[in-house]
Amino acid sequence: KNQVEQSPQSLIILEGKNCTLQCNYTVSPFSNLRWYKQDTGRGPVSLTIMTFSENTKSNGRYTATLDADTKQSSLHITASQLSDSASYICVVGDQAGTALIFGKGTTLSVSS
Amino acid sequence: NAGVTQTPKFRILKIGQSMTLQCTQDMNHNYMYWYRQDPGMGLKLIYYSVGAGITDKGEVPNGYNVSRSTTEDFPLRLELAAPSQTSVYFCASTPQGRGHEQYFGPGTRLTVT
Predict the structure, then answer these.
(1) Distance CA B54, CA B105 (A)
(2) d(Cα B43, Cα A19) in Å, to the nearest integer?
(3) Nearest C-alpha of chain B: how many angstroms from A99?
């Protein structure tokens, strides 16, 4: 069964610190892996999209990595800001392009 | 561009009532999607459309209907509301296939009591 598992479920960090969120998936074969940021009460917003041949992609202070062999991805946030407080969702697209499988998300809280 | 807009933002329905969730995008995207997000769960695809006049079922279509008469609009219809349909509903669009970035609307929070 195609699944996307994210860890940790929630995370609290101090402003200015770095953090890394994890995503493991069983979707195979897959075509792309995305990370979304979802603020409370808002729709998800795309951070990065990586194809199976890409290892890393950055978007400002957000850097996503992908290891297609181990079926793992991570999202690293550098120098966190209060505005980074949100849910971060990992999404995997199957190769046929017929399905996007969403993880449950990691809730990040950045405190001052 | 306004992007993807959804109305209403909130709605409370009684069991058995019906309603239509509206979704409009002004980016001339061919593909549009409806998702539901239950607390603590990942988004689930309800229906999608690859263009005007074409719709198809997603993972959880039961209890819902859609239509796509224009490129811009993709309304979601609930005919007989049930408590299990209490959720947050998101509409999304993308210019081409699912390999491309999806743009989400702000969501509609629906409660069925």
Answers:
(1) 21
(2) 24
(3) 8
